[in-house]
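[Meeting: bench + compute handoff]

Bench side (C.D.) handed over the final construct sequence. Compute side (W.E.) agreed to return the predicted structure before the next meeting so the bench team could plan truncations. Sequence as handed over:
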Amino acid sequence: MPYMQGVTPVFYLSYPGAPWYTDNMKTLDAYVRAIFDAMNEGIVIIDLEGRIVYCNSAYSAFIGADPALITGCKLRELRPGARLPEVLVTGEPILHAPRREGNDDVYFVNMYPVYENRHIVGGVSVVTFIRDAFDASKELERVEKLSRQILHRVNKTNTVHYSFDSIVAESPAAKECKEIARKAATTDATVMLLSESGTGKELYAQAIHSASARRKEPFVAVNCANFNGTMMESELFGYVEGAFTGAKKGGRIGLFEAANGGTLFLDEVSEIEIPLQAKLLRALQEGRIRPVGGVEEKEIDVRVISASNADMEERITQGSFRTDLFYRLSTFQIRIPPLRKRRLCIPALTRDILDELSGKLHTGIKITDEAMRALMGYDWPGNIRELRNVLELSAYFAEDGTVTRRSLPDQIIRNSANAVSERLSDRVKRFEKEEILRLLKVNGNTLEGKKKTAKELGISLSSLYNKIGDGI
């Protein structure tokens, strides 16, 4: 299993003239460069072609070359025996590789693959000299810990892509949701994002992180549905060497430790199994974690944002989710409205998506008013994810770069036609019922809750019963 699997590290390896180089991309920020140049350990980073994209002062002094002259050169042309390119093929780190330079300089190297969106984009090598070391095993442990910290620093650079400016909010419901999220961002409290699939929960999570006091620290995301209980526990808390069969030599840090000082985003948190929920609750309450198979606890300082598209109240009733954990995770409870509840957002979302597609397809893509009305009339069960999918497909079929009604999939035309044919009175009745049910969910479905709801709406209790029907 690659180091830090489950995290979405973003680290752009580039140099002027590289095929992927753009003006707004940086090899490393100035702060990280200063850290690396201050180190005694040599650091060299290569891209997928094995070309050097960065080396620090210690490494350039070690090989006796000017960094400016070797940047862009293939590592194996400079050092034929270099093993760093091997990690590009295997995807596995090479640890404690002993090397000798001449007769006196003994050193060893830790080599790691660097990932972006779960794909290898390069490799990083940490060269450590063993001079005056009285205890080689302790030195190995110290350097491995340092190497992990370096790799973590590299992988966490620029991991957040979204801010509140990225969130489209044109409807009252969307504006209210965005405003609550902004308030949550000013605190250090836990946040639970509740919504249907495809509404942009991670977008909200990243926006909250980027507007918080932790914005300069890591944002680490994990989808809890991707792991079973045992795997999820080691993913979150890490493990020590020998904790279980197949455990990596030297152990592995977990996502809580990787996100220390920053934000940990637990997507689909409802899928965490009950036994692990108790350990997660304790970590949140105590601010301490214990790796799998370990005895010592570690202090952590992490802000947790969680998300779920499940009915959490139903999960609690069924006994598959702990009530105490739910309340611990949801100091702020934010319900992101589905797209059908915020249709006023559709035009702005459509423009943003088409602008993005225009850049990818290298042509301007427009949409007719008739096609936009069809999009407005559809219910979007897949929410923004479905809208993006539909627009991307339609863009490929667009004639002269214009998305028309004919360009749209049949189900959009068919369902939007049904929506248009709905009578105005029926729309009013449906809206009234939805609003009443929303308030009843807040006030309760008891007699007292119904009386309170009727009073807030300025209608009689009998009118309320007529509007929601006998079955409610």
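W.E. noted at the follow-up: The longest helix spans residues 136-156. C.D. will use this when planning the next construct.
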